[in-house]
C-alpha cells in the first residue's frame, strides 16, 4: 500500500527515542557528576599523602639530610599509580623518587608551592613543608589518571548495565498503550481496505479497549459503514425496482408491438380486401349499369314513336340519367379510395401552374361559361403534384359549378400570408353556403345544395380533405350564403 | 372475349349500328378463347392460320383471366402479333401497366353511357378492320 511506515512502528520509534533520550541525559549527568567526584576524591587523598610526607620529611629538609628525605619518599613505591614524588627547596630539587618508567621531571614543578594540577595524562598535587612556622619547601606527588579511568569505566559499565535494561523495560511498557492505539487503527485500515476492495459493507471494525478517541473513531467508522450499508441497500432495492419496471415495461412494449404487428397485418389484409372491393366495384357494378343504359338506348332507338309513347320515352330517359349518375358516383368513390391508397410523393412544385392547367381544362369543358379567373403567380409548395391537381380539380370545379347562376363569375386562387400557416385559397363569388352546416362540408356524400340546383356526388371535398390530411395540412372554408365561398388549405410543408 | 352476355349483346349491337360486318366470334372465358385461337379442346382441328383481325379482350374472365390469355398469346409464335384491344371496366393502374407490359395494342375502358360506348365501338371497328394493316403472319 503506502511506503510510509505503519503507525505502530512510528509510535514505537517515538517511544524508543523519548525514553532513550531521557535515559541518556540521566546517564550522562550521573557520569559527569561521578567523574567530578572521583577527581576530587583523588586530589584529597593525594593531598593527605603529601601532607604526611611533608611532615615526615620536615626534619630531613631542616637538617639538609638528602638520604633521609629520599628514604621518606621511597615509601611511595608501594603505590603503582605514582609517577614521581619529590621535595623542592628554594626552587631546587632536594630529593626525588620516580617510578622507573619515567625519566625526567618537568621543570615547572619546581616553582609551584601548593594546589593541584591536572593534565590529560597526570595529576600533580603540591603541599608545603613547614616546621615551627617556618616554610622549608614543597612536596609534590605526580600520579597518572588510571585510577580515575578505572573507576569511571567501572561506573560507566554499571550505568550502561542499568540503563539498557531500563530502556528495554521502558519500551516494553510504552508498547502496551501503543498496541492499544495502533491495533484498532490497523484493524480499521484493514476493514476499510476490505470494504473498498470487495464492496462488502456488512463487515465491522472490532471494538477493543483503547483510548477514548480511538474507540470513538472505530465507533464512528462502524456507524458510517452501517449508514453506507443502509444506503447501498436502498440503492440496490431502487435499482432492482427500476430493473423490474424496465423489464415490465419492455414486456409490455413487446406485447404492444406484437399487437401492433397483428394490427398491421390485419390492416394490410383489410387494405387488400378494400382493393379487391374497389376492383370489384369498378368492374362488376358498372357492368349492369352499362346493360341498363345500353338496352334503354336500344329501346329508345328501336321502339320510340311505335310501341313506346312520349311518357315511355321520358321514363327511359330518366332511367338513363339515373344510370349515368350512379356511374359517376362509383367513379368518384373509386377516386377517393385511390387517393387514400396511392403513395405520397412530395416535390417542390409550381402551384400556380397546376391551378392554371386545371382552370384551362375547366374552360375547355364548359365553353359556354364566362368565368374570370385570377391566379396569383409564383405560388410554390412541397407537395404531391398529382394529388394537388386533384385538389384543384375539385375546388376549382366547385367554384365553376357554384358560380353558374351568376353574372360576372369570378374565381380567385392565391396564398394568404397573413393567416396562420400561410394557406392557399380558392375563392369564388358564387352561391356560397350557410356556415351553420360547415362541419358537414368535408364528409363523404354530404351535400349542402339540392341536386336539382347543383349536380354533384358529394365526394369532391371529402377527397380534398383526405389529400390535405395526407400532406399533414388542414382545410377549412369560409362562406356567406349567396355571396360566395373561400376554401383554405395548408400542405404541412414548413417552406 | 367476354363473359357478360349483356355486354356481348350490347357490343354486337354497337358493331351492327356502326355497320361493321366482319364475322365476330365470342368466347365466354379464357380457356375457350385459347382453345379457339390454338385449335385445341372444343375447337380441336380448327384451322389456326385463320385468325381474327382483332381480339377484344375483357380482363375479368372466368377460369383463365384476360391478362393470362394475353400472356399466352404473346408467348406463342402463331398469335404473338395478333392485335389485342383490352376492353374492360377496370381502370386499375396495375391492370393497365400489366396490359402494357404484355404488349396489348390498345386499352379501352367500357363507358357506362351507351352513347359513348357506341362511339367507342364505331371507332374501334373502323380502325382495326379498315385502317390497321396487320403484321404478315408468314415471317
Keywords:
heterodimer; A: 495 residues; alpha+beta; Beta-Lactamase; Heat Shock Protein 90; five-stranded antiparallel β-sheet; five-stranded mixed β-sheet; 12 strands; rod-shaped; B: 139 residues; mainly alpha; Rossmann fold; three-stranded parallel β-sheet; 3 strands; 42% helix; globular
Task: Give the topology.
The complex is a heterodimer of chains A (495) and B (139).
Chain A: H1 7-62, H2 66-74, E1 82-89, E2 92-98, E3 115-118, E4 122-131, E5 134-144, H3 146-198, H4 212-303, H5 310-341, E6 347-350, H6 351-365, E7 371-375, E8 380-383, H7 385-402, E9 409-415, E10 424-428, H8 460-470, E11 475-480, E12 484-489
Parallel strand pairs in A: 7-9
Antiparallel strand pairs in A: 1-2, 1-5, 3-4, 4-5, 6-8, 9-10, 10-12, 11-12
Helix pairs in contact in A: 1-2, 1-3, 3-4, 4-5, 5-8, 6-7, 7-8
Chain B: H1 5-17, H2 30-38, E1 55-57, H3 66-75, E2 84-88, H4 93-101, E3 106-109, H5 114-131
Parallel strand pairs in B: 1-2, 2-3
Helix pairs in contact in B: 1-5, 2-3
Written description of the protein model:
The complex is a heterodimer of chains A (495) and B (139). By secondary structure, chain A is an alpha+beta fold. Chain A folds into 3 domains: 7-170, 2-Layer Sandwich (Beta-Lactamase); 201-341; 345-489, Histidine kinase-like ATPase, C-terminal domain (Heat Shock Protein 90, 2-Layer Sandwich), CATH 3.30.565.10. Helix content of chain A is 58%, strand content 16%. Chain A has helices at residues 7-62, 66-74, 146-198, 212-303, 310-341, 351-365, 385-402, 460-470, and strands spanning 82-89, 92-98, 115-118, 122-131, 134-144, 347-350, 371-375, 380-383, 409-415, 424-428, 475-480, 484-489. Chain A has a 5-stranded antiparallel sheet with strand order 2-1-5-4-3. A 5-stranded mixed sheet of chain A has the order 7-9-10-12-11. The radius of gyration of chain A is 69 Å and the shape is rod-shaped. The mean pLDDT of chain A is 84. A 3-stranded parallel sheet of chain B has the order 1-2-3, covered by helices on one side. In chain B, helix 3 links the parallel strand 1 and strand 2. In chain B, helix 1 (5-17) packs across helix 5 (114-131) and helix 2 packs parallel to helix 3 (66-75). Chain B is globular. The interface between A and B is medium-sized, with 23 and 20 residues.
Amino acid at each position: 500500500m503506502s511506503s510510509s511506515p505503519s503507525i505502530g512502528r512510528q509510535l514505537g520509534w517515538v517511544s524508543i527515542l523519548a525514553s532513550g533520550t531521557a535515559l541518556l541525559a540521566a546517564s550522562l549527568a550521573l557520569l559527569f557528576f561521578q567523574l567530578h567526584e572521583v577527581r576530587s576524591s583523588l586530589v584529597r587523598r593525594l593531598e593527605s599523602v603529601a601532607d604526611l610526607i611533608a611532615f615526615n620529611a620536615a626534619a630531613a629538609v631542616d637538617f639538609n639530610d638528602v638520604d633521609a628525605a629520599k628514604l621518606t619518599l621511597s615509601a611511595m613505591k608501594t603505590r603503582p599509580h605514582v609517577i614521581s614524588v619529590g621535595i623542592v627547596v628554594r626552587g631546587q630539587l632536594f630529593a626525588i623518587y620516580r617510578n622507573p618508567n619515567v625519566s625526567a621531571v618537568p621543570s615547572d614543578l619546581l616553582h609551584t608551592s601548593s594546589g593541584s594540577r591536572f593534565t590529560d595524562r597526570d595529576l600533580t598535587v603540591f603541599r608545603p613543608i613547614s616546621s615551627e612556622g617556618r616554610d622549608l619547601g614543597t612536596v609534590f606527588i605526580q600520579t597518572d589518571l588510571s585510577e580515575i579511568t578505572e573507576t569511571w569505566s567501572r561506573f560507566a559499565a554499571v550505568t550502561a548495565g542499568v540503563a539498557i535494561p531500563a530502556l528495554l523495560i521502558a519500551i516494553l511498557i510504552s508498547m502496551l498503550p501503543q498496541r492499544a492505539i495502533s491495533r484498532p487503527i490497523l484493524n480499521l485500515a484493514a476493514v476499510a481496505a476490505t470494504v473498498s476492495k470487495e464492496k462488502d459493507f456488512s463487515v465491522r471494525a472490532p471494538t477493543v479497549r483503547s483510548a477514548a478517541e480511538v474507540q470513538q473513531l472505530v465507533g464512528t467508522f462502524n456507524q458510517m459503514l452501517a449508514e453506507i450499508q443502509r444506503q447501498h441497500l436502498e440503492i440496490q432495492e431502487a435499482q432492482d425496482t427500476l430493473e423490474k419496471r424496465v423489464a415490465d415495461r419492455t414486456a409490455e412494449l413487446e406485447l404492444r408491438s406484437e399487437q401492433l404487428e397483428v394490427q398491421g397485418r390485419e390492416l394490410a389484409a383489410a387494405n387488400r380486401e378494400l382493393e379487391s372491393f374497389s376492383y370489384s366495384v369498378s368492374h362488376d357494378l358498372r357492368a349492369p349499369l352499362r346493360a341498363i343504359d345500353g338496352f334503354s338506348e336500344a329501346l329508345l332507338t328501336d321502339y320510340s314513336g311505335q310501341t313506346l309513347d312520349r311518357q315511355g320515352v321520358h321514363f327511359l330517359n330518366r332511367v338513363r340519367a339515373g344510370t349515368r349518375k350512379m356511374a359517376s358516383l362509383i367513379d368518384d368513390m373509386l377516386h377517393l379510395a385511390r387517393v387514400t391508397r396511392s403513395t405520397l410523393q412530395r416535390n417542390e412544385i409550381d402551384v400556380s401552374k397546376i391551378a392554371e392547367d386545371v382552370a384551362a381544362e375547366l374552360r375547355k369543358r364548359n365553353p359556354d361559361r364566362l368565368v374570370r379567373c385570377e391566379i396569383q403567380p409564383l405560388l410554390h409548395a412541397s407537395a404531391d403534384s398529382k394529388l394537388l391537381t386533384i385538389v384543384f380539380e375539385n375546388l376549382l370545379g366547385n367554384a365553376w359549378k357554384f358560380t353558374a347562376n351568376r353574372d360576372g363569375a369570378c374565381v380567385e386562387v392565391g396564398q394568404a400570408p397573413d393567416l396562420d400557416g400561410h394557406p392557399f385559397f380558392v375563392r369564388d363569388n358564387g352561391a356560397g353556403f350557410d356556415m351553420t352546416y360547415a362541419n358537414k362540408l368535408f364528409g363523404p356524400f354530404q351535400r349542402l345544395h339540392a341536386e336539382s340546383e347543383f349536380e354533384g356526388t358529394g365526394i369532391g371535398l371529402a377527397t380534398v380533405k383526405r389529400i390535405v390530411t395526407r400532406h399533414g395540412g388542414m382545410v377549412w372554408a369560409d362562406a356567406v350564403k349567396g355571396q360566395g365561398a373561400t376554401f383554405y388549405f395548408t400542405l404541412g410543408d414548413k417552406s | 372475349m367476354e363473359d357478360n352476355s349483356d355486354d356481348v349483346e350490347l357490343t354486337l349491337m354497337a358493331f351492327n349500328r356502326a355497320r361493321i360486318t366482319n364475322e365476330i366470334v365470342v368466347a365466354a372465358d379464357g380457356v375457350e378463347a385459347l382453345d379457339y385461337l390454338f385449335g385445341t379442346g372444343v375447337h380441336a382441328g380448327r384451322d389456326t392460320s385463320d385468325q381474327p383481325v382483332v381480339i377484344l379482350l375483357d380482363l375479368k374472365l372466368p377460369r383463365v383471366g384476360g391478362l393470362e390469355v394475353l400472356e399466352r398469346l404473346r408467348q406463342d409464335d402463331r398469335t404473338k402479333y395478333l392485335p389485342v384491344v383490352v376492353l374492360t371496366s377496370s381502370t386499375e393502374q396495375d391492370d393497365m401497366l400489366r396490359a402494357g407490359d404484355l404488349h396489348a395494342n390498345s386499352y379501352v375502358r367500357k363507358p357506362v353511357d351507351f352513347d359513348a360506348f357506341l362511339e367507342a365501338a364505331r371507332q374501334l371497328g373502323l380502325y382495326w378492320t379498315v385502317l390497321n394493316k396487320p403484321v404478315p403472319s408468314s415471317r
